[in-house]
Design brief:
The chain is of the alpha+beta class. 54% of the residues lie in helices and 15% in strands. It is flat.
Amino acid sequence: MNFSLAVIATNYSGPTEFLNERNGYPLTIDGLALQEPGIEGHKWAIPSLKHMRKLLRHIVSNPTEARMKGDVARQDMVNKFSPPIIAKQLIELFDEISHKFRGQIGERDEL
């Protein structure tokens, strides 16, 4: 996505935070499978091979659309996930945690 390329990814879990119909090709899943060995209870998506074939054929038949989605994906990555944006979000989160922590220390000091 960061390289302005069309992306196909499972429409499950993490990718749903950044991939959508506007900027890529969400791939349906046929179900979930336990990951062995791995984190207990963690499940992996089983991608739909039928849908994958359909999406790949669509991209090959519609290269202009795929390029446009790739361009939108690049812009989304820059606007939402570039280092300055992530740094700003982290600073805001650390400030929020710091204020809560200071409040707890102050409450304990008053006891």
